[in-house]
Amino acid sequence: MELLRSNLSRVRIPEPTNRIYKHECCVSFETPRSEGGLFVDMTTFLAFGKDYVAWNYEKTGNPVYLHIKQTRKVVPEDRPSKKPTLLAIGVEGGFDNNEPQYEETHNIVILPDYVTFPFPSVELPEKVRLTVDAIIMAEGAERKEQLAAWTADKKHVSAYAMNLPQIGNDVIVPPSGWKCAKCDKKDNLWLNLTDGMILCGRKNFDGTGGNNHAIEHYKETSYPLAVKLGTITADLEAAELTMGMYCGSLDVFSYPEDDSVVDPLLAQHLAFFGIDFSALQKTEMTTAERELDQNTNFDWNRIQESGQDSELIHGPGYTGLANLGNSCYMAATMQVVFSTRSFNSRYYINQSLKKAFEMAPADPTVDLNMQLTKLAHGMLSGKYSVPALEKNDEENAPILTTNDALEFFLHFLDQVERVNGGSSALDPSRSFKFGIEERILCPSGKVGFNKRLDYILSLNIPLHEATNKGVFFFILSSSSETYTWSYMLTMYICGNSEALEAFHKLKAEKISEGKDVSSDEIVRPRVPLAACLASYSAPEEIQDYYSTAMKAKTTALKTAGLTSFPDYLVLHMRKFVLEEGWVPKKLDVYIDVPDIIDISYMRSKGLQPGEELLPDGVPEAEVESSNPVANEDIVAQLVSMGFNHLHCQKAAINTSNVGVEEAMNWLLAHMDDPDIDAPVSQGAHGNEVDQSKVDTLLSFGFQEEIARKALKASGGDIEKATDWIFNNPDASVSSDMDTSTSSSKPTSDNIELPDGGGRYRLFGIVSHMGTSTHCGHYVAHVLKDGRWVIFNDNKVAASVNPPKDMGYLYFFERLDS
């Protein structure tokens, strides 16, 4: 005990602001359940596994640790499950899943000789007891920093619910047998809570769903709330569990708030139309349940290889990553990235855990180099990869929300580049980087060049290049009496786009009849990857291009090529595009991707002999408008509301004079800015936007000019910028272009990039299931040791039929010449 008392000065009672780590080692994936338990430094509150705690003692000299060990309890197999009170997994009140229970023991350990004192004990100094109690009672920093076990978002009470007007009290809605008032749809029906109109819901991107009659009714009447018929249940407990909120709040949608909401007075609002809430039975899937039902469709089964007799794999390089609730996009991306030689060498082969720990700052949990080394050793060493006792059914785990794998990939590489300080010897992200050169030919015969750097090649999908047009025709002819065999055969011989139009016509007819197109009638177009690459390199006309040679606007011709070929080429398929009316749509298409591709023809050639560069210069109008000018109408309206005139000018300028609402939102968000009272800048820096955010919007299929304007109008927020684009379909920007500025990260000819031949081999696929990049599920397939392997979160298995034609991101490795 004297030894402990002599080290009391190294014991610190944690304060509320201290981050306490007690669930996972900060340099490995050891936990209190590991064989050696976990050691918590009672000075820094960092946690270390048995094999790593000595490193911390050597580095810091901190001798006193709280040792936490959890041992599995023996419990009856038939123990009753806890009743869930919240739709969640892995959190208090969530689903139990009969997870094993553990008994936790604590000891005080003093290094370097591992002298041990049991806890609790009245003989321990009070300072030690207070410290240990605080550590045990605290919520671990690991849990706070996790993406969190998935929990359904709680819906907010609608601002329109409490004072909702209701008219037409002679309207009596029957308890069943509903039909849309404007078409024959009998499912996906919504009851408007103001006038009792029953109308069908929105049309999905693939033509299924409703016919938009409910939302069109809102646009005509401004009646705000509607409830989905068939989703309401008198089972109050089930209702509370499903939404975690008020009973009777299932699938109430607020059109002005553009969100699912809670209506606390739903029973009262339904009674107005003669509906007895207690007599209703649930007959329709809620919106959330429809999202969950995505698990059973073809995409999910095909991409995850459900039902295949696949061999589970374990060992070095075959370690799965647990899904923290919505982290599948990270898991899939990291499995592919750490399969590359560059990341493998940087963070595993050439860097030990101890070396990374010694180089890390006082808190290694905030050091990216340390944490990537920890991840690499965890994934590649095989230490945490053990034989699975049985196959689980994780491929059907519901994931409602996630993030975009492409966005994460670009952000991740950007952070790796930053932390490595641009050192070509250390930076593994360089293996993905390449140069792009855009060549602009104006009618004067002179040329200009834009150059930039990128990590991905984002490709449009030219559906008119589909190779299976004939297949569409015969399937249509056998499934619909509308088309004759002779007509279908004629279209097959002609091989034109009428087939696709015929398919959409058939689908529209069935939808108008209240029917859905069956799965065996749906045939997806197959587009060769070569056609996508050719589309990228194809000449593109630029309207209203300002030629510095002609000193006038004209039509120029732009082509693009690569100035270097990276070690690893990542192709992003733009499956999410905008239809007419700015409606987002996911292309239902297969991409035929060969194992080997050759893009040698895509290398840019630069300035050719006999060609002349366009002279430097900018349009006169651009020079005159370089100083920001606020729209006086917007400023006057804001000033009339009581805002400061200078502040109103800044708000208008920083939202590109889009409108009063946007300017007021900016103003309210920046009232406390330290430079809010500074004079309006005469430079253009206020118009600068983060290029990585521009790239993200480009990956969604938006035009670059529109993306930039949207980001300026939304203060750089990607989500708000996307909403701005959808809400401003008539937005336009000047298409003036000048070759003196780059459309992405500028580059120069002398920058050192990896380069080589143009032949590549496919080695990785990140596939996406779901209607949006921000919902659904991501899975990775990686070519390892000569065979394809599926990484589906923590499931690792030999791939029987890798979905090469359904990828979202394709990873290619350059072949040595």
TrEMBL record:
Organism (species): Salix dunnii
Region (Disordered): 732-753
EC number: 3.4.19.12
Catalytic activity: Thiol-dependent hydrolysis of ester, thioester, amide, peptide and isopeptide bonds formed by the C-terminal Gly of ubiquitin (a 76-residue protein attached to proteins as an intracellular targeting signal)
Protein name according to UniProt: Ubiquitin carboxyl-terminal hydrolase
Residues noted as binding Zn(2+) in the record, renumbered to the chain: C180, C183, C200, H213
InterPro entries for the chain: Papain-like_cys_pep_sf, Peptidase_C19_UCH, Ub_carboxyl-term_hydrolase, UBA, UBA-like_sf, Ubiquitinyl_hydrolase, UBP13_Znf-UBP_var, USP
GO biological process: protein deubiquitination; proteolysis
GO molecular function, one term: cysteine-type deubiquitinase activity
Residues annotated as domain UBP-type: 156-277
Active-site feature positions: C328 (nucleophile), H777 (proton acceptor)
Listed Low complexity bias regions: 732-749
Domain of life: Eukaryota
Role of this protein: Recognizes and hydrolyzes the peptide bond at the C-terminal Gly of ubiquitin. Involved in the processing of poly-ubiquitin precursors as well as that of ubiquitinated proteins.
Pfam families, alphabetized: UBA, UCH, zf-UBP, zf-UBP_var
Record keywords, A-Z: Hydrolase, Metal-binding, Protease, Repeat, Thiol protease, Ubl conjugation pathway, Zinc, Zinc-finger
